[in-house]
Amino acid sequence: MSGRAHPVDGEGELSPAGVSSPRQTNTPFVHKVEVPPKQNLFNEFMYTFKETFFHDDPLRHFKDQSMSMKLMLGLQSVFPVFEWGRHYNLKKFRGDLISGLTIASLCIPQDIGYAKLASLDPKYGLYSSFVPPLVYACMGSSRDIAIGPVAVVSLLIGTLLRAEIDPNTNPNEYLRLAFTATFFAGVTQATLGCLRLGFLIDFLSHAAVVGFMGGAAITIALQQLKGFLGIKKFTKKTDIIAVLRSVFSSAHHGWNWQTILISASFLIFLLLSKFIGKKKKKLFWIPAVAPLLSVIISTFFVYITRADKKGVQIVKHLDKGLNPSSLSLIYFSGDYLLKGFRIGVVSGMVALTEAVAIGRTFAAMKDYQIDGNKEMVALGAMNVIGSMTSCYVATGSFSRSAVNFMAGCHTAVSNIIMSVVVLLTLLFLTPLFKYTPNAILAAIIINAVIPLIDVNAAVLIFKIDKLDFVACMGAFFGVIFVSVEIGLLIAVGISFAKILLQVTRPRTAILGKIPGTSVYRNIHQYPEATRIPGVLTIRVDSAIYFSNSNYVRERIQRWLTDEEEKVNAVSLPRIQFVIIEMSPVTDIDTSGIHALEDLYKSLQKRDIQLVLANPGPVVIDKLHVSNFADMLGHDKIFLTVAEAVDSCSPKLSDEV
């Protein structure tokens, strides 16, 4: 058989035993397929526009409300804090306080490490966990998401920035470009939310995200080998071959055994604490406080032993004080404007995808809804404001959000508590991090990114959809063997390729009658289903557009040719009717109608009648407007396949 093989919708073997006689009726009752009432062009356009951009009917709460109430509802839609804040109480604050303190103990050491991952001074990681969470707490709709820098976005933005500017030779320009990218990341996110274009992030499939995140996690872990092993000269590339070459080339003279002892010991401690937290859910606080405890112990150890004099690299100076204004540092003109825009769009989309996925996950667990477009506006606003207050791209952190969820948070106040703790750290505690070894930061980051390598999800993807698995592995290998941006490009490319393949090559199936019923189903899925002599029933499982109309026509003709060969081989009545089951065909365009016209003419030359069953309202309307219904004959369009077969039965009986 020519054409693409379908694992589900395949052909069945035709034999005399597998042929069913049609139900004989002298006067079959036929239901007419109704044409929907005609709508004017404006109403039709407004309906399509609403379903595309306002399918959730966001203005439904404003109906039949007074002007003052509408103003309050409008304020609440932009700032949800005014909605849930009215019902806030001491019990909720108690849960939020515990959650906020817990995630603060986790975020402080992570923020310092993630800033270094983005090739920024550690203080910018802390800045990014102070202002953005406060903005999100006022504007975000998720109760559980914890805001701040994350590993994947830090790696991505660091990689893209370093491709433009060397942070060692031009630190000021590098910092300015980072703020510019953050500004445009926020603008991108807020614009998508305001224009209600959130569906665009869905083009990055789950499989591609799993592969991208897994590859990014391995890349991040490999990048931490510099701090983990105490290597001073390390490659600037991120691919696995360059990193491993750099690691092993410095094995004899570049590794520091004191650094390895610190990093390995505390990594084991962190992994053990995580294992305990997974085994006993009530001890969730142990893996949450373990990173901060590791920082305190390792910093004290380095200070009393002066291990920094023996080659152990430390954080050194960390500025005290609040976020300074950075509005004047953002590039609004010049060569770096477009570069910042490009980096901002890419990092903003990845950050958005991660945050919305995290928010939806925890919202489903607690059985409440989040508005994806509002989330985008909130995330965009916090990054725009963050770019003006010395922050780089922040988003939702899965590890911190999971801890926030398990600690019993009730509202976004937990983010405010975390911000207050970070504020106190910036004001009073930053000098204490001077002797914090880079080794412990490397261990903390490695421990944090391990859960991003979701092997079980990859195995499940392989079992469910092999093409999805190709997308997953393409993104994964693209990240670890080439670069983060190439891996992301592969992920997006394969996701689009899959969509195009499904649109241009829709599934088709031959239908047979389930014994004892008037139901017709795919003969491959239901082997007991029998075909009617002289009738070929085919289902098209997609809308028929210009991109697939020729394929659909050719595929139906190939089905017919194959069936005629089988019929001739077993001396059964020839095919006289081709019935197309059109209930899955949600829409059809002019190319699709032309394809049906060509098919009709081709079948007429072979003395075969084309029959349609159950076209939907949009399809039947277009068939009438195009006059194809007149060409085919209104008596050749039926409500069900069973009625179509019954209508063909007397003609078949007469010839037999």
UniProtKB/TrEMBL annotation:
**Coiled coil start-end:** none
Q: Quick one: where is this thing mainly located?
A: membrane
Location(s), subcellular = Membrane
In what way does this protein cross or attach to the membrane?
Answer: Multi-pass membrane protein
Q: Which of UniProt's keywords are assigned here?
A: Membrane, Sulfate transport, Symport, Transmembrane, Transmembrane helix, Transport
Q: GO terms for CC? A: membrane
Region Disordered, as annotated, extends over 1-30
Q: Which InterPro entries match?
A: S04_transporter_CS, SLC26A/SulP_dom, SLC26A/SulP_fam, STAS_dom, STAS_dom_sf
CDD domains with a match to the protein in the record: STAS_SulP_like_sulfate_transporter
Per UniProt, residues of the STAS domain are 525-648
Query: What GO annotations for molecular function exist for this entry?
Result: secondary active sulfate transmembrane transporter activity; symporter activity
Residues crossing the lipid bilayer are: 145-163, 175-195, 207-225, 255-272, 284-304, 341-364, 376-395, 415-433, 440-462, 474-497
Name it: STAS domain-containing protein
